[in-house]
Amino acid sequence: MSGTLLVAVLLLTLAAAAHQLRKQETVPVEQAARGNEDSVWISPAVLRRHSVEKLVLPEYPAEAVASRTQGTVVVELVVPPSGRATEVRAMSGPTSLRSSAEAAAWKCEFRPSLLNGIPVTIRSQLHFRFTLSRHKRSRARVVALYPGA
Q: How far is CA 96 from CA 41, 62, 130, 135, in A?
């Protein structure tokens, strides 16, 4: 009987520990496969699901609307535990849309990412798709994409 009681106490202790771990809000991260050794790479899908606190969409530049420029801009960013980007750079996309996407990325806010319980600097990407409807009077639209989400 005392052996059964001991097993029950151990199971309850393990369940309580697992519950505490689930309560901690951590961001799963992958070891950096590229980039700065002081930062950790996370995929855009993981960034969106776990890290984005405030997403700012870019403005559609008037000259891009006038020239009917559309496309997806990929912005790479570095975010320290403070939650505000310290490096932002448009990696691809139409030239006339890049500065708007970069400006939006600077304004985004992120939750701290943890690796083994320690806040870390992350490197990831935001993808912004700029689209226009076929009718010139319709509004331009910008959406954030998250590959793999």
A: 28, 10, 11, 21
Third-level CATH fold of 2-145: TolA/TonB C-terminal domain (3.30.2420)
Mean pLDDT, all residues of the chain? 77
Domain boundaries, given as residue ranges, for the chain: 2-145
Question: How does pLDDT run across 26-55, given as a tens digit for each residue?
Answer: 444 443 334 445 778 877 777 767 788 898
- Return the H-helix or E-strand segment holding 115: strand 113-115
Measure CA of the first residue to CA of the last residue in the chain; give whole Å.
Answer: 50
Burial class from Cβ neighbours inside 10 Å (0-12, 13-18, 19+) for residue 19 reads exposed
Query: Considering the entire predicted model, what is its pTM?
Result: 0.68
